[in-house]
Known about the structure:
Elements: H1 6-17, H2 49-52, E1 59-61, E2 64-72, E3 82-90, E4 99-104, H3 112-122, H4 125-130, E5 131-136, H5 152-160, H6 168-189, H7 198-211, E6 217-222, H8 224-235, E7 240-246, H9 255-280, H10 289-305, E8 308-309, E9 315-316, H11 318-326, H12 335-348, H13 352-361, H14 374-385, H15 392-405, H16 410-415, E10 442-449, H17 455-464, E11 468-476, H18 486-498, E12 506-508
Parallel strand pairs: 4-5, 4-6, 6-7, 7-10, 10-11, 11-12
Antiparallel strand pairs: 1-2, 2-3, 3-5, 8-9
Helix pairs in contact: 1-13, 7-8, 9-15, 10-11, 11-13
Amino acid sequence: MTTRTRLTIIAAVLAAAAILAVVVTWQVVDRQQWEAPRPTGESVDAPLARFYEQDLTWQDCGPAQCTKVTVPIDYADPSAETLTLAVRLYPAEKGSAARSIFVNPGGPGGSAIDYAASMSRQFGSTVTDMYDVVGVDPRGVGESTPLECLSDRQFDAFTETDPDPDDPGEVTALRQSVSDLGEACQQQSGALAAHVSTEEAARDMDVVRALLGRTTFDWFGASYGTQLGATYANLFPQRVGRMVLDGAVDPLESSIEASLGQATGFQRAFDAYAEACIAQGDCPLGSSVIEARQAATDLLDRLDSQPLKTTGDRVLTEGQAFYGLALPLYDEQSWPVLTQALTQALEASDGTVLLALSDAYFSRQSDGRYADNIGQVIYAVTCLDSADAPDIDTVRAALPDFVQASPVFGRALGWGAFGCTDWPIKPTTPQGAVPAKGAAPIVVIGTTRDPATPYESAVELADQLESGVLLTREGDGHTAYSSGNQCITQAVDAYLVKGTVPKDGTICAE
């Protein structure tokens, strides 16, 4: 499943439920104090020199400065085709910045330039006083050269595919939907479709780092952004400055292990939601967690053959309900919207809010267009990173384990484990271990009931990184820094501002 950060999920859920209007006030920056960074001028391999030494043209874009950076599509053949990266820099609030902190919200497929806008406000003032906040949309994403695959209408059909097939025909349809997506990426995007791996995106970050005149790389990555940051650290350990990996991904997990971990995480989150729903009274799922699990499972089963009507001209399918259930579990502030959606579905046989939540998960707008390509990029990146592709017999054999881990989400996530088996583009730079030997201390944060990146993944990544330091948040929701937990905020800010590394194993209670 696509992993996103707390900030983007809250915004999506609130928009889907149409329950809040947000007014954003931008900070005013004295642009006369800001000067375009000068490249480091460091020595690099000759074939890459033209990328590390290119001239940049900066422009005002709201309170930020924006530019475009050219990088090779294939680092193994830098003389061939190139692509363009979109860069947005929010200048430090007090004159010239001492450092630049790069940020990424995950996905794969989330827009880093949008996330930079959010984090320029979310970081404490002591952080933004000394850091420029920089977002670089990864290759294939957002305002960088995009990965183009299915049309909006075709992707609608993709999201409607049953994620939990019950017969050979549905299994074939599920497998065909993934292979069709990969073939569309090849046809529409050419060489780029084979070069959106995490390693290649990490190499892009190093080009931008040098062009910003920074000899070290400071990073705040959330969700999949932790994998991107860890991959950078492994490629360029001596250039690591201060790096925070929040909501960590374990890059060494197999497809089965990763999907099973998410099944465990989402069930934990669902059970925590159900307990809260029951405690408040009049919960549409029943009066116990066991009843709640059964009610949600029964709803998905019914939708397999009887989609629910909505107030529009579309219906709610089982696949869309799966994503509609999952989205609000990313953050407990969104739980009331899930209760609203389930009450409507179970008591009024109306799937409108659940469909809106599913649309928000995939960034589908009311006019039928998709605001971004995150739902397609995740397949392309994941499958280029993955060296294993379990066959259907292996997946079938593992399904009982998935159901035991998650009665509600297990089967669908189990079938999702062979999402890369039928991907037509083979990886050239598959993900490996990321020990990052010689890197400065790297702070890895895990949340105990994180649905999308289970806590165990943070433990594994911190252990895998030779300089990894584990910081734990006890609580619900995906990622920790923006959760309002002051212990986490203070530990991260002290690390970024003063270089004070938290004690390994520190636990921050709710």
